[in-house]
Amino acid sequence: MTAYLITNVSVLGAAPTDLLIRDGVVAETGVGLTASDAVVVDGTGLVALPGLVDLHTHLREPGREDAETVATGSRAAALGGFTAVCAMANTSPVADTAGVVEQVWRLGREAGLVDVQPIGAVTVGLAGERLAELGAMADSAARVRIFSDDGHCVADPRLMRRALEYVKAFDGIVAQHAEEPRLTEGAQMHEGEISTRLGLTGWPAVAEEAIIARDVLLAEHVGSRLHICHVSTAGSVGVLRQAKARGVQVTAEVTPHHLLLTDEKAVTYDPVYKVNPPLRTAADVAALRTALAEGVVDIVATDHAPHSVEDKECEWAYARPGMLGLETALSITLDVLGPRWDLIAERMSRTPARIAGLTEHGHDPAPGAPANLTLVDPAARRVVEPTELASRSRNTPYARMTLPGRIVATFLRGEATVLDGKAVK
After folding, report:
1. Which of 73, 111, 116 is nearest to 307 (CA)?
2. Identical fold at 3-47+367-423 and 51-356?
3. With contact defined as beta carbons under 8 Å apart, do 333 and 260 qualify?
4. Which phi and psi (to 5°) does residue 212 adopt?
5. On the CB side of 278, how many CA atoms lie within 13 Å of its CA?
6. What is the second-level CATH architecture of the domain 51-356?
7. Which residue of 216, 271, 345, 425 sits 20 to 30 Å from the alpha carbon of 155, by its own alpha carbon?
C-alpha cells in the first residue's frame, strides 16, 4: 500500500500541519514530518476534511446503465470529495431483495473508488403495498440499515408504522420521500405564483409537510428512527423543529439545489430544472439555509439523479425529474455556508456517516483515524462544464456556472482515488 505525506495542509481550517498516511490510517500529524517511502502531496493552501458521505445517491445500476453505472457514479463521487455513498433502491430490478443489494454492494467494491452502501426498498417493487425483505437485506453481505422507497412515498400509514417497527430490531432507519400522492397528481412544479402564471399544475408545499407531520408522530409512537429525504419547504422545517424539541428520533437532509435554486428557474421551461420535490420559493431557500446552519436539518445529501438525454432533453411535461449533484455538492455548500469547515464536515461527513452507521467514515484527520479524507482548494473557482463531468449523464443545473472550491485529492482507506483533481483509476 502506498504511503502519502501531505505537507503544509490545514485540517478543518486550523494552522498548517503535515499528515502521514500509512496502512490505511492517518499514522502521524505534525510540522516537518518526513518519510522517505511516501509520495509527497503539497497541501499548501488546501483544507483537509473527513471524506464526504452522501446519504442519497442514484447510481441507476442495475437496469439503467445508459444513465449511470456504479463505476461511473463512484468516479463522480470521488471527484466530488466523497468516500462513501448510499445508493437508492429505485433500480430495475428494484433493490428489494438481498440478492439485488448484494449485487450493488459488490459492484461498488469492484469499482473501489468509494464505499457504496445500498439502501433497500421499504416495499416490494416500490409499490407501497407490502413490506420488502427488510430482515434479509439487513442480514446480507451488504448489511443494509437504511430503507427507502425514494421516488415514491410510503403513503399508507399502517405500512409505514410496520416498517418503523420492523427496523427497530437491527437499529435500522426508514428514509421517507415525503409526498402525499393525492395532492401532487399531475404536478409539474412548485404550486405558487409562478406555476399559476405558467399554467403548470402545482406541487403544494403541504403535500410534503403533511407526510412529515404524520411520520414524526408515527416514529414518536413507535420509538423508531426516521429520516426525511430532500426537505424543501419552510413549513417542513417548522415541523422538524417541533419534533426535535420533543425528542423524536428524526433526522433530515437538504439537497444542494434546494439551497441555491428557486422556482423562478421554471420560467425557462428548461427541464434540467425539473426535480422532485420541486424547486421552491426564495423564502423556502432562506429557511432551509438557516435550518441547515442550526442543525434542524442535519445534513446535505445530493439526490444525485442522472438521466439519459432522451429522458431529460424533451418537453417539460415529459421530462424525468432529477439533477446531477455529486461533483458540485461541496462547492454549493461552501457557497451557502461559507468557509465554516467544521460545520461543513459535520453536515457532509460526520453526521451522515453516523446516521448510516458507516463507522469507518466521518472521522477528522487525526492520528489513528481511518484515512478517508478529501483535500479542497478553497481559493479556486471552477466553471462547471457538463462534458467534463465523470457522470454518464449531463443533466446538471449548474452548467457554465462559476462555483467556489476545487477538490484536489480524495483518499479512501489511505489509497488515493483522486490526485491533482483527476481520478486515479
Report:
1. 73
2. no
3. no
4. -60, -45
5. 28
6. Alpha-Beta Barrel (3.20)
7. 271
189 and 274 Cβ atoms separated by less than 8 Å: yes
Q: Which residues contact 413 (CB under 8 A, 6 or more apart)?
A: 24, 360, 370, 371, 372
Q: For residue 221, what is its C-alpha cell?
A: 409512537
Kindly state the cell numbers that stand for 48. 483537509
Q: What is the pLDDT of residues 377-407, one digit of tens each?
A: 999 999 999 999 999 999 999 999 999 999 9
Q: Report the alpha-carbon distance of residue 360 to residue 353 in Å, rounded.
A: 8
Contact between 46 and 16 (Cβ < 8 Å): no
* Furthest CA-CA distance within the chain: 67
- Which of 321, 385, 324, 374 lies closest to 349 in space, CA to CA? 374
Other CB atoms within 10 A of residue 373 CB = 29
405 to 61, 62, 133, 193, 408: CA distances (angstroms): 30, 33, 42, 35, 9
Structure pTM?
0.97
Place of cell 439551497: 259
Pairing of strands 146-147, 173-176: parallel
CATH classification of 3-47+367-423, choosing from 2.60.120.10, 2.10.25.10, 3.80.10.10, 2.30.40.10? 2.30.40.10
What's the CA gap between 74 and 417, in Å, rounded? 10
Other CB atoms within a 10 A radius of the CB of residue 206 amount to: 14
DSSP 228: E
Cis peptide before 50 (omega within 30 of 0): no
**How many CB atoms neighbour CB 63 within 10 A?**
13
The answer to whether 60 and 326 are in contact (CB under 8 A) is no
Q: For the chain, what are the domain ranges?
A: 3-47+367-423, 51-356
Mean pLDDT estimate for the chain: 98
Q: Which of helix, strand or coil describes residue 370?
A: strand
Taking residues 342-371, what's their average pLDDT? 98
Distance CA 349, CA 184 (A): 33
End-to-end CA distance of the chain: 15
* Active site residue ranges: 303
Whether 425 shows a pLDDT value over 90: the answer reads: no
